[in-house]
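Morning!

This is the sequence you dropped in the shared folder:
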Amino acid sequence: MNPQAIVDQLESLASKDPRVVATRRGVPVATILGVTTGNIRKLAKNLGQDYGLAQQLWKMDIHEAKILAILLAPLADQTEAELTQWVAGINSWGICDHFAKKLAETVTDVTGLVPLWVAQEALYTRRAGLALIANHCMRQPALDDPLVQTFCEIIYQQSNDERQHVKQACCWALRELGKIDTQTHEVAINIALELMESPDRSRAWVGRCAHKELEVLVKVPERRRLISSKSKTGAKHMKSRVK
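The structure's back. Tokens below.
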């Protein structure tokens, strides 16, 4: 199918008010059709992976077309240069995080991409690198010490970026790093405390943001990752410890 035929299908699936979606996603209303992610996923499943079609959809200034492109593209088969070209086409934080999630699910080694992307000044290229750290940490049962150190250095270095979408991604990455196990939790807590004491307002903000969640995390036997003591499972675990 050609890209315009796909867009026609997306338009027929629209069920949300584009203005509401645009406000929530922080993108121009003119780029939104109003299609649910569930319907986009169903369409992607019917179409199957198609890198050529995905590339054409990605170039369109349509939010749902970009989401569909991410789902259709076999990202694991692409080179760092090709993936970087894709990142350059990101125009919102929602698309950025969706791309990072899909990439983390399909690519096991992110050590080349993360430093490359966070070094760029472009807002969503930098955020993509940080979002990739967060998603990678969410999916790995453990990280070796050198990679933990690399991630910590990157988060600290980028935490002085005053742009909100970068600061939020730094906080997100640090929180997810701290949830892997008790060792990374201690490391993340120390980084957060260091950031909180920084005279740089952006760094201090990131530190406070991350510490707020990190300080209430607990290790529960039946869970692989640390969880909040304020969650139902976490609160139950804490109560049992008191007994």
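Headline: The first strand starts at residue 217 and ends at 218.

More detail when I'm at my desk.
O.
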